[in-house]
């Protein structure tokens, strides 16, 4: 209930204005976001790389209705690839891209064209790209774009949300050789008609999907902080080589566990940066009510 309210607030312009103008919000946001600019992201990535962690970089932004804004997001990714190459951080790094930030809702092929340019630049830098998955209304379009991109850049990956009832069907087309699938539980408020609603139902769907990925020929990316999911993934991965799958977690969440897993497994951290942190931050609050308490306490203890 509280989670659904926070997710609704995450899409409200009025609440955005209120939350982003609160003086102490920033210190709470900093737990989940590497910083406002590329320099801050580079600093965070250097620290993570020093601890043996791989990274995927997300230049924050979503739901763009403005072509100039979509272009600016594309350019931000291009600058990031250039900087990562220059600083020697590109090798093995990944970029996470939200098609809605590239103009997916705008008419024509704008988002596909921008995504193509992003993939071309990532490839030149020695990096890969993974498409984030947003709310269920965007899944068809995102998978269609994935298909177009993969014909030129076969290493492009995609996030699949276990909570969506359709995902097991989608995975049948995505478990083949060369595919890279990031399996997540799903962070958006979705109706019961399209998504499992209870935590246990979602967890069971996650395990079914995980089994499909681990039995498939692609490269599973197990994106979860849930200790039970991680144990199950380790059990299902028996017989696979250590370089044929990886774990992924979000920046600032279970950081000690990230480092522990990195000792014996491939572990990648999703590093968001940029000024447009509001939607991302609200989803992180919605995932865990304790985060909201922490956020509110920061005002009381001022
Ligand atoms: P679960 O929510 O059950 O959490 C398990 C434990 O992890 C909690 O008990 C707590 O200890 C810790 N935890 C989880 N979330 C926390 C938080 N916000 N703050 C503090 N602790 C927390 N979703 C989506 O819809 N589309 C996408 O493209 C992506 N992309 C993505 C990439 C990566 C690398 C990750 C790790 C996750 C995503 N997600 C996502 C988000 C995902 O769908 C999901 O909402 C979160 O990962 C939380 O689910 P868990 O699997 O961690 O389990």
Automatic annotation (TrEMBL):
Keyword Nucleotide-binding: yes
Reactions listed under catalytic activity: L-proline + a quinone = (S)-1-pyrroline-5-carboxylate + a quinol + H(+)
Cofactor note text: Binds 1 FAD per subunit.
Pfam families: Pro_dh
Pathway(s) this gene product operates in, as recorded in its UniProt entry: Amino-acid degradation; L-proline degradation into L-glutamate; L-glutamate from L-proline: step 1/2
InterPro entries: FAD-linked_oxidoreductase-like, PRODH_bac_arc, Proline_DH_dom, Proline_oxidase
Enzyme class: oxidoreductase
Top-level taxon of the source organism: Bacteria
Any one Gene Ontology molecular-function term assigned to this protein's record: proline dehydrogenase activity
Record: residues binding substrate: 98, 283-284
Cross-referenced Gene3D superfamilies: 3.20.20.220
Name under which the protein is recorded: proline dehydrogenase
